[in-house]
Batch of 3 targets.
Target 1
Amino acid sequence: MATDLNKYFEPISAQAWEELAKKTLKGRPLEKLDVKTEDGFVLKPLYTSGPDVPKLAAPQQSWEPVAIVESSEDVGARADTEFDRGCNTIWVRGGQAIGEVGERTKVILDASNVADAKSSLSGVANHEIYISPLRGLFSESATKPANGAACVSTLEAHEAGTTAAMELGLALAEAVHIARTLEDSGEAVTWQDFPIVVGVTTNVFEEIAKLRALRWLWKSLMKTIGETNSPKIHAVASRRTLASVDVWSNAIRATVQEFAAAVGGADRISVYPHDARMAERAEAGERLSTTSQHVLAFESHLQQVADAAHGSYLIDTWTKQLAEYGWSYFQHIERFGGLESFFKDGRLHDELEGVIAEREARYAKRKQTRVGVNEFAVAGELAELEHTPLYVEAQGWETLQRKNRQAPPKVFLANLGPLAAHKPRADFVTRLFQAAGFEVVSNTGFDTADACAKAFADSGAKGYVLCGRDDDYETLGKGVVQAIDAKYAVYAGRPADEATWREVGVTHFVSMRVNVFEAVSEISEVAK
């Protein structure tokens, strides 16, 4: 029998929450807590109600883990290995010969046309064919979808940098394109369980909302053509989130992506190994990409809950907003002549450039973070790269970090005063320069300029960063800058008068409000 916990707690009104928030914000407007998504709509920090969003159907069983095969490995042997791991389906994306595969394993094959696909699948009894016109446009290959051998796949567009709403709109546009193509050839589309392949990032709530919005939009699209059915959503942990530094952090990212896909209602989930971008890959990566799904399904019991996000005012609102923006983007594509014209005229490319520029600007200022890349970087062995996706988030940071780690330049922290005084800015600077591949030389702080200058000389660093309170900068910091002869001098914070500090000898300024990527990139050149 359920217990009503409300009787043990005093009710808290929205007004009471707002008053507390205003107090915490110290006079700043409550709108400071609003979050603007990449698609341009605003999410509030508190919702006391939500829109009426369709509930996902109750699950008949757990989602289907699908292992990805891209290399030239023996597909049959890989199928046997995955079966032993509890995965009955493999997805062949590399175009290699498949050979004999037992009936117990289903093979999904990416293809351009049915004839070539069936030739490759001649030794496979249980198979499915994915032919995606949008994937064909990205790969510049002619695709010929056929009934029973067609799919909607926004994965390539997603990995090229789309926003969530753009991906939804592209999915609908591709479905319409397939319908028109088959109609022109005299075929009718079988829409029941039609496969839709989508990418999933680490933005958990947005991805849950995106998958829920996709089903809602699909239902609306099918209603317009007189169909009633459900799609088969194949969610893929996006390669654009895979880092080539601190690669084990990719395993954590993948788990987050799997979780979002499962809660969002995916029917199939695929995960690239955490070391998928490396030239040499360990067996552990492939194993984790399958077994981690079993942990979520059978130990965390995600497969037992139908639409776990339903009733969350935030996610329901996000779902509705994405559905509206996704439908608008679909109409935007149609106004320019449909999917093929939209792509070939360069409109998608141009819009992606704008989206990526805005996203990378947030990464440059560390307003958006990738753990292990532009925040909380961990020095370690750098493996040789083999594969780089169409687009990698925060790739500039990744490239800079890899470059500097070959021979890490040193940066000295000129910590002013006691630990409590300099620690906040010293921590910020430490994480910043570690993300750029520097070796950070720290200390417990200095009370005199001479002591700081001597420690700097002993450190072997070519430059330093002033870290301390504003008051200490005025009383001690200027003396430190005058006492130290260095190739570069960095001020951590935002002085009231930069010009005065530049006259003293400061060369760079870093804070949460500036493009710190540009700053550390310039310093990297000086520090060589």
Target 2
Amino acid sequence: MQVLLAYKSNISGAKDPYTSLLPIGLGYINAFLRREGHLTRLANFSRHSWKDVESTLATLRPDVLGVSQFTHNRFESLKLAVLAKKINPSTFVVFGGPHATHQFQEILARYTEVDAVVMGEGEVTFAELVNTLAGKGVPSLGEVNGIAFRREGAVVSTTPRLPISDLDSLPIPAAYYDGGIGVDVHRQLEFIVTSRGCPAACVFCSSPLFWGRFIRFRSPRGVVDEIRMIRDRYGLLYFSIRDDTFTADKGRVMEFCRLLHEEKLHILWNCQSRVNAVDDEMLRAMKRSGCECIQFGVESGSPRLLKALGKSITTEEVRRAAASVRGAGIELSIYLITGVIGETDEELKASMRLIEAIRPHDGQVSPLVYYPGTALFVRSVKSGTIGRDVFLKDRREAFYVREDPFVASATKELLKALSRAADAGRFTTADFRAQKNLLGYCHTTNIMSGEMHEEKGEWQSAEREYVEITEREPENPWGWLCLGELYGRTEQWDRALRAFNRVVRLVPVHAPAYSALGELNTIVGNRPEAIRNFQRALSINPLDKAAQDGLRALGE
């Protein structure tokens, strides 16, 4: 059977560099189905017009259409279903994802274009569903665990499927991204997931209900092998680990860092965690292995609001974790929430004082929002504050718990506080000196220190930082990459060319380095070599904009 796995963000999400990407879950389902022998294709319609979407569906006419649905793209997902059925009424439309999982009753009752919903973890369930539709699996949909569908007009759900116990048994999505429609593979693969589940009880998050409260981990060996495969096949040198709490198991983190360091993968990376799930030893190991930023859900500086949000953390834990992160030389990023019922001016000031104290380098502020599958939403439905079917009746992208003037004002004030803290909290020359005394040589520190010097126009100091990387670790592409960019900014064309040529010898599929070589050869007047390098970049990444622009400027 022909299976199309599709996603389309909402209009504003199409302009966002992250929301416009395919959900990681679709990549896993695609890989699992491919390994099982099914004919599948990924489609990211986020930046496609509806006319183009309709044309693609008419050309492919899939037997099964799997659609990933979130709250922000719920109506786009439903329009995909309607279009698919209009073009080919026999297409079996399956929804999955957090919104569909927690709103299956409402969706299936109202939209006959949606035939079934895969609830929660999707790989095994979707494969079994496809096998059943093909006449090769269990005899009926009612025997497929973990789905909901209509039977004689009534919505029914089957026995919940047990979570996959061995996440290492799943195939790596990166090995199966070929043939995708509208898929920016290089952007997609920057983001990886190494665990599923969250033991926390934050009232605003649906992750525990979707994945379960018990955390299941991939092995450090499996994660490092995935990173190595992506690095070798696609040339990526930077990764973002999107686990809810990457540092939940210290031993696993330490082993992951050891493998990265000993096997000399020479990457940079960031992750998300909780303030009560890190310590000095772990953070220092993370920094040595390439971690340059960590994000914490701090949410508020008010103990009362932290309790109301179900955070199970204290402001003192926030302060300690922030000090440890900064001490290790890792940049600190935080998430904040405002617009909680009963939030006062004094509680807003408490959050601002906390920001000033911990000096994050970056941060995001979000008003408190209702999402299906959250304790906040369930509680509010029971109290009559909001209707369970509001997400189908109202087309707003987000449903704020509060919409009074305080929320807009508080958001603005918190963003200002974050901006001030970022300016005041920049690592200084003295900070980097202390980090080197604490950690010894670490390419992450050198890169961050070099960038600081470049921002100040201290070119020689920046150069010394990068040269040290190339001297201590000649096989580390980051030293040469940073030198190439530095020499390009200071118009040292020959030295820049030599540095970027060294990068592509170390990482032959690093498209940005080939684009840089194309730009440099254009500057020095070597047109044939410029064209060759731009073309090489596009052969690796057809969506490389620098290479596209470079060839266009050369009239190619």
Target 3
Amino acid sequence: MMNDWLKVIGATVYLMAGHLPTAGADIQMELKRPILESAEYMGYATAYRRLAAADQAVDDTWCAAGTNAVARAKLCRETRARAVASFGGFPERTPLHARITGVLKRDGYHIEKLLCESRPGFFVAGHVYVPESADFKQPYAAVLVPCGHSEDGKLGRVYQHAGVLLARAGFVGLVFDPVDQGERKQRPVRRNCGVGHNAMGALAMLLGESGLRVRLWDAMRMLDYLSERPDVDAARLGVMGNSGGGTMSAMLAAFDDRIKATAPSSYISNLRRVVDGCGPQDSEQILYGQLGYGLNHLGLLLLRHPTPTLVNASHDDFFPIDGTLETWRALARATQPSGTFNRYEMTEAAGKHGWKAGMLATSIAWMRRWLRDEEVVLPTADERFRMDVANPASRLGLETMLSTTEGRVTETGAVMDLPGSRSVYQVIRDDLDLYTAKRPKMTTGERAAAAVAAARIRSRAEADIRPIVVSEGRTNGMAVVRLGFSEPTGFTMPGVLLVPTVVSGTPCLYAGDRGRAAFAGEVASALAKGRPVLVVDLEGLGEIGVTKRRIHVGSCVDDGLGKIHYLLGDSLVGRRAEQLRAAADVLKDRFNAVPEIVVDGTVAIPAAHARAADAKLFALLTIRNPPLSWAEAIRRAVAEPIQWTYTDAVQGALRAYDWIELLDL
């Protein structure tokens, strides 16, 4: 197939022989001209189809296991173990050094200002809402409330409401700040918290860790704190939250056996609907390769089956309710054979994304049912509780919502001002130092093999990338062949082959972040020297560089495509390396010479991996505007707002090698 195609190219070049171009303008026009029809979503569409099929397959697996208790238990154990392994396991359990920095008295409850360390020097600030009514006796059941994407964290109005209502309903409620929110801003420069979450996650990914690992460990340590309180019954712990807090509620219930009831709101849907509707979301909401080992939204609900779970959803949420209903129907199929479907409930609310009063009320009622054995399903079964929720804030004592100053746990309102405090970037850097010290010495061959394995670079036969001629013509005596490099998934990479009349130099392959036209000047110079040139747009770049959904539009690097590959246990770095190799193969086979590859920007990373996969394929690798080494990015992130992406990272690579080390092979 390859040789037949090359014969066609050879004939085309011969027939089009003429004069060399004398200006770069014609070259730029040829490079700018689209090659593929309706190609802008090419990378996204093909990757998304794989994700949607994998997500549906996971649903089918859980439903099939529902008819066999042994099979279901085995699936739960294996999925949970593989998920934990995918982010490197949990950190060491170290002393919390918990202390109360202040107490605020309120009518019927009080608020304790909690400061503790989930890891040494990694401070967590929270508010503990404690009942004082004679209607409730110690030890109390306790409910953890992880916050969603509120810049104010625990001081967000809805999260204060949750704490107050929990205390008034007789629970100890712990509301705490997530990383980069509230008093846990990691840098003095204020940024959208989602930007911080993704920066944390992409850097942690390089160590085989994840943003979820950081967030989940914080939540687990808050459970440790609650379990140690003398006024809390450690056998009756629940978790509820909204949006990002809904994510953490589902995740914590799935991974911590101490949770006896959970109520995630504005989160549960399914991955195929979420990714298509609003993108893959933040680092704490995704795990590497999770669709390969059975973890999706349905899997989260079943991982600790049959933990009582209330799913709250809104009709006009950006976590699509169509996905929620699909997951709910799948949950019924998976649990009805065992007679446990009655341990799950779903509520629907009108309106957009958010923790609405009714959703908050039903969540607390759910905790009463399963943590205190009260026979209520909805708040309407209890007149006193319904009145508290339905009446104005003044009837609840909510007119005393805490101000930023009053609610501070730390003196300055920033945990990073505390002596010995470490940011999440310092934690990641310290982990890097540990892995670097343990890294085995490797030969160049071993390092190359490690890179190929980590980036999931397939053999040529497995990748099966085939060049096809889209169109052919000539401009100013220059042969112009427009190519599509087709893969079995349906993905096609566009490229332009330009051949001078007389070939008298080494062929050259160009690829970069800014697309084909950015190389117009260099291409013109190469052609003038008799060098044939192939310029390609790798997956997610140039002509095929549009992603359907952006994450945190306007404030965060768009690497949704990289995250889709991450969810699949794949690597966009690896896919791009395969595409570069396929393009280089064309030049080598046609012109019987090993090509030079010239790359710009972050394309240097897949280029280095392509070289690791086949060092003999490139006569020379020239890099323009190279990115930082991965290790340097982690070290600089301690003091600078480094925004690394999933697109340019390889899961766990820094445990064995840095991309820049591949240049020495």
